[in-house]
Amino acid sequence: MVIDVMGVRRTKTNVKRFTRRMQGALLFVFCVVFALILGLCARLAWLHVNEGEDYGKKVLAQQSLGTNTNLPYRRGDILDRNGTVLARSTKVFNVIFDPSIINMDESYAEPTIEALVSIYGLDANELRSILVEKPKSAYIRLLRQQSLQSKLDFEEYVANSKNRKQIQGVWFEEEYIRNYPFGSLASHVIGYTVGGDIGTWGIEQYYNEELIGTNGREYGYYDSELNQVKVEKPATDGDTIVSTLDVNVQRLVEEKIKNFRSTWKCENTGVIVMNPNNGAIYAMASNEGFDLNEPRNLSAYYTPEEIAAMSEEETLNALNRMWRNFCISDTYEPGSTFKPFTVAAALEENLVKATDTFTCDGYRKVAGYRINCNRRSGHGVVTLTESLMKSCNPALMSIGELLGRDEFYRYQEHFGFGQRTGIDLPGEGGSILIPKENLNVTELATSSFGQGFNITMVQLASAFCSLVNGGYYYQPHVVEQIRNAAGTVVYENQGVVLTSSVSPKTSEFMRQAMFMTVDSGTASPAKVEGYLVGGKTGTAQKGVRDKENQKYVVSFIGCVPTDDPQVVIYVVIDEIHDEEKKASSSLATALTSEILEEILPYLGIYPEGEINYHIDLPVNDPSTDLSGIQEGDIISQDGTDPEPAAPPAPAE
Questions:
Q1: Is the pLDDT of residue 450 over 80?
Q2: Between β-strands 70-71 and 216-222, what pairing exists: parallel, antiparallel or unpaired?
Q3: By C-alpha distance, which of 194, 95, 112, 197 is closest to 147?
Q4: Strand intervals (E) in 191-335
Q5: Quick check: 140 pLDDT over 50?
Q6: More confident residue, 25 or 615
């Protein structure tokens, strides 16, 4: 409203007042809110006095759960081909002490301490000291890796105790430890684990990613009624590895090696037993192995006094030697076990025929050097088969000359020498071949019978399998199957063919020639009653050709039965210490025979009545006495000196 007073225009406004009615309403609201606050405070005070301890325990229990959120996975088992456990993770329990809970009530301490002392034999005063010195700690590990039975004993003690409600603040943390039921059996193949569940050496290392799993998680929360609800995401266990090993075969091989080494001292002894028709390794043993449950224990090789006297560096070197797998890591000159490959290469190239003959005068002159045969008086005229039966160096040098360095080198690589096989084990060594451009006449001559270059056991064994199985080069392997935690097969290896090495015709000839070498040649000690055994011996000079201190690697590689090979065995003995026997491959063939006689029945290969060991093959000189003949593979300087002297060392 506008009012004009004496010419001045004024505006009149309505002013609202805080009435008594409004004041009364505000006072009422204030009183209601104040009453509610008083009621809430009274309720909180009551809960604190009457139920505060219970709520405190619930909160602490939730906090304790937070310290044990990880649920450990179980590392996968390692089995042999028949399902026998070679490595397994066993659940154990860590005893955890929680002073924060025990100190909530003075009546908890002594009953809890008494329970721990009774079951685990702990020191009561030390436990009391922990409660005083670390009163708020929620996680103190008292003991590690206790058995399930001890946990059950503790729980039974608590359940039967009159003070069971006062035994508080003790819980158990799950963990797994790796266990190897057979101790040192197949130690170089299986390997072991170190802290953090990490595989070291062998299958444990190579398949570590498959063997490990994923930890689970456990956590909790309170529902509307303050009840704790636990939520668990279970752990995913590791996969199970089914190896190609056969426990019975491996055990027998290792027993024979141990007996041999107790009789004949030597630097290294290696044995590989494998299936030539798929590359599966049934047994692989190097020396005496080591205890997988105590992988740093050197007592199998040294006396306590020797171990105590070792420096830290000497101990480490000794451990590395003990852990090293000779069968795949060490290289050496193969000697005459390589001769079948030279012959097979020449057959494949149609440079020789089974009916060809060669003349052996006991030596052959090459580039001014006299390279001797194992029989200094000579073998006379020999057939291709007899060149292997009698291990005739001059015949093999003639065949190598026919091949020439280009073809010879090509076939070395074709048979897998000069490259790793890709076996599923860590630490595989590579071979050392003479470069093709350095394969001069002398180097070609010595290489033809296996001297002058280095290979590994697994290379030669795999290549030999292809010679006798029809020409299929299978990649060697020690694992045939992987199964997940549910038992489903997620990987299977039934044999991977890498290449075709020789024709079926050449393979058939090699089987026959290998049989004759055992039947009537230098490998006769490898015979096994009732079985058709074929193979080739080897005696290779090692290192510098020092006639005063010459060292040798003697070996035998063979197959059974020769008409349909099911097993290939390779035995290598490095540096026999006996002066009279150090160059004798008969030790390798005899050890082979002992092993085959024991393992063949375990592999389902049985003798069939009376076996006629004679095969009608052309032999030029059946009257030749081969008893006691060993390969010498010896090189001597041209002249009257009959003792060996090495030609210039081939370039590497």
A1: yes
A2: antiparallel
A3: 95
A4: 192-194, 198-200, 216-222, 228-233, 240-243, 266-274, 281-286
A5: yes
A6: 25
Helix (H, G, I), strand (E, B) or coil at 89: strand
DSSP 15: P
pLDDT at residue 650 is higher than 90: no
Q: Where in the chain is the domain with CATH 3.40.710.10?
A: 332-530+545-558+575-587+607-637
**300-337 residue pLDDT tens:** 889 999 999 999 999 999 999 999 999 999 999 999 99
Query: Which homologous superfamily does the CATH classification assign to the domain defined by 69-210+233-243?
Result: Penicillin-binding protein 2a (Domain 2) (3.90.1310.10)
Per the omega criterion (within 30 degrees of 0), is the bond before 622 cis?
no
Query: What does CATH list as the number for 332-530+545-558+575-587+607-637?
Result: 3.40.710.10
Q: Which residues contact 335 (CB under 8 A, 6 or more apart)?
A: 449, 450, 451, 538, 539, 540, 541, 553, 554, 555, 631, 633
DSSP 299: T
Token pair for residue 435? 């470069």
Nearest to 172 by CA among 135, 119, 213, 251: 119
CA 105 – CA 166 distance, rounded (Å): 9
Each residue's pLDDT tens digit, 25-61: 777 777 888 888 888 888 777 776 666 656 655 555 4
- Residues 616-624, mean pLDDT to the nearest whole number: 41
d(CA 337, CA 600): 22
Least confident of 377-381, 417-421, 589-593: 377-381
The structure tokens listed for 294 are 């105590």
- Residue 94 is given by DSSP the state E
What are the φ/ψ torsions at residue 586 (nearest 5 degrees)? Answer: -65, -25
**Chain region(s) in the chain for CATH 3.90.1310.10:** 69-210+233-243
What average pLDDT does this structure show over 408-429?
96
Nearest to 424 by CA among 80, 189, 97: 189
pLDDT tens for each residue of 337-350:
999 999 999 999 99
Beta strands in 119-262, from DSSP E residues, in sequence order? 140-146, 170-179, 192-194, 198-200, 216-222, 228-233, 240-243
To the nearest 10°, report the CA torsion of 167, 169, 175, 180: -40
Neighbours of 500 (CB within 10 A): 13
Q: Which residue has the higher pLDDT, 650 or 23?
A: 23
Structure tokens at 26: 């505000």
Could you say which DSSP state residue 186 is in? T
Rg from Cα positions in the chain = 40
The b-or-e profile of 304-314 (16+ CB within 10 A means b, else e) is eeeeeeeeeee
Q: Is the model's pLDDT at 21 over the cut of 90?
A: no
Q: What are phi and psi of 293, to 5 degrees?
A: -80, -20
How many Å apart are CA 454 and CA 388, to the nearest integer?
21
Partners of 370 in the beta sheet?
Answer: 365, 636
**Element (DSSP H or E) covering residue 589:** helix 586-602
Q: How far apart are CA 102 and CA 497, in angstroms?
A: 66
Q: Are 391 and 400 in contact (CB under 8 A)?
A: no
Asked if 91 and 235 count as a contact pair (C-beta separation under 8 A), the reply is no
Q: For residue 136, give the 3-state DSSP assignment.
A: coil
Helix, coil or strand: residue 118? helix
Strand order, beta sheet including 635-637: 363-366, 369-372, 635-637
Give the H or E element holding residue 540.
strand 534-542
Instruction: Name the 3-class secondary structure at 203.
Output: helix
CA 468, 469, 474: angle at the middle one, nearest 5?
Answer: 115
